[in-house]
Amino acid sequence: MMNTVTGNTGVPVPNRIAGSLGDRLFHGVAWMAAVGVLLVLGAIIVMLTIGASPAFEKFGFFNFLSTAEWNPVTEMFGGLSPLVGTLVSSAIAILIGLPVSFGIALFITEMAPPWLKRPVGTAIELLAAIPSIIYGMWGLFIFAPFFADHIQPLLTDTLGELPLIGALFQDPPLGISVFTAGIILAIMIIPFIASVMRDVFETVPAELRESAYGVGSTTWEVVWNVVLPMTKVGAMGGVMLGLGRALGETMAVTFVIGNAHKLHLGLFEPGNSIASTIANEFTEADGEVYTASLIALGLILFIITFIVLGLAKIMLLRMAARQEGRPA
Amino acid sequence: MDIYTRRKAINIFNLTIAAITTLFGLFFLSWLLWVLFQQGFSNLDWSLFTLDTPGPGDEAGGLRNAIVGSLLLTVVGVMIGAPVGVLAGTYLAEFGRYAWISHPVRFINDVLLSAPSIVIGVFVYEVMVIPMGNFSGWSGAVALSIIVIPVVVRTTEDMMRLVPDSMREAAAALGAPQWKVVTCVVLKAALSGVMTGILLAIARIAGETAPLLFTALNNQFFTMNMDEPMGNLPVMIFNFAMGPYENWHDLAWAGSLLITLAVLTLNILTRFFLRTKK
């Protein structure tokens, strides 16, 4: 691979240059750096697997995943509670974040006057730039008390009265809960989803929109029947990207989820997530099995996010390929 | 209601909802920034930069050790990560644009871009903290550099690809070897873009907490020795915000404000760079 030097345009470069030392050296170093990216990923997976193996040996992989007991004293560990907490808080984040992001993307691409597009887009992107620890502090000191005083009683009185899902909203308003974590995650992932959606919506050719308007469609009908069907894959890719972010988010969640190793039906109860469990307990974990169990949680989190982010990437690539395949 | 009124009503209703969701997003941004500026500026003081972080129960205290530690960790992290990232990006854009290995590298790089940073902390703990026997500034910087690399790879490749092929061909036609074409023509033309990527990476790691929790750990005392645990703003904020003392909370708010101001400034800088380029 390293010796076949061709020009960037595919035009073969004359041999005397291909043989020159500088080229080989530079090419080799750059190649090593690129391969280094692959090696980092490989090393992460290998090291996590090695670190987690005492836990998997003792408890068994599936047993570890399906047990909720987490007791450092008896050295019995099961990852079900953090796993469920991670999935539930991320699911809440997507349930809230998806429609809001869609609305924002719709507003920016179809409704906002040109002078407003850039400032609104920038402001939403700034939400993504704020470090997660700031969200955590704001969540703990400002949002959680507000949520407990004003929103939670309201939800208990309305959603809590409903059959079936009512039980999810009936616990006392503490402010600190899986649901709070989900809301903060939603705010954090909105900019990611919204900016991908905005970008893919803008790839729809103006002719298509105009012809739809021309036959009398309303703005909503243009979005729902023309823009969205064309950009479905890319928009889904954006959602998966947001999901991947939500699953792995650590600091914001650690502040507000409550860090309780228990499984609850109620969303207003404190819980934990994989990332928050590791953040809280890793430095204090004594004993091989305890540390290994935390690393095992990390490995599971890494695999889940890897799959989700991989899917996101594939969807966005398919969207891009479709874009290139279409005559301009 | 006839069908036209209904379609109009649906249109107006949905567009109103869309406008409301946008306000919802902007509302949270302003709420967050408002609280942060209010709490942060009221605790901003020169003593932040001259005193070290207070222990439990100490009255006076600042953030000197944490600020210096954060700067050091960020600078070293970028100095390790950015060259690797630029080289890998160069490979993807120039030498190996069509090589088979570039496909998995691009894919993995994009996945690493959003990979959970806490897992990177655990990884560095295993490969550096355990063999070295203690938490250290070096392991914190390495953890940060792993976050820097994917950001820099992505932007470097994108920016180098914006350079028109005719420029490369012109240089090659003059007899320049490829390494000269890459460094003197392509990299030079794409420099502001590459720098933007590095700035973005700095903004990204400036507030990263999770990878530092079990690598650099924290240090209540001033140190510039990278072999020791090192104080840093994000972990300080985490510990102090969770702690019971009022003056710890105040310092955590002040630290949050400093980080956010740094990150927002970097973001505005990158936008400025990119706009002048276009």
Which class of the largest domain in chain B in CATH terms? Mainly Alpha
Total domain modules of chain A: 2
Distance between the termini of chain B: 51 Å
Tertiary shape of chain A? globular
Mean pLDDT score of chain B, rounded? 91
Textual characterization of the structure:
The complex is a heterodimer of chains A (328) and B (278). With 328 residues, chain A is mainly α. Chain A folds into 2 domains: 4-44, no CATH class; 63-324, Orthogonal Bundle (MetI-like fold), CATH 1.10.3720. Chain A has 12 helices and 2 strands, in the order H-H-H-E-E-H-H-H-H-H-H-H-H-H. Chain A has helices at residues 15-18, 21-59, 61-66, 80-111, 114-129, 132-158, 178-201, 206-214, 219-248, 251-256, 274-281, 288-325; strands at 70-71, 76-77. In chain A, strands 1-2 form a two-stranded antiparallel sheet. In chain A, strand 1 (70-71) and strand 2 (76-77) form a beta hairpin. In chain A, helix 7 packs across helix 9 (219-248) and helix 11 (274-281) crosses helix 12. Chain B is an all-alpha fold. Chain B has 2 domains: 3-42; 48-277, MetI-like fold (Orthogonal Bundle), CATH 1.10.3720.10. Chain B is 75% helix and 0% strand. Chain B is built from 11 helices and no strands. The mean pLDDT of chain B is 91. The chains are: A mainly alpha (328), B mainly alpha (278).
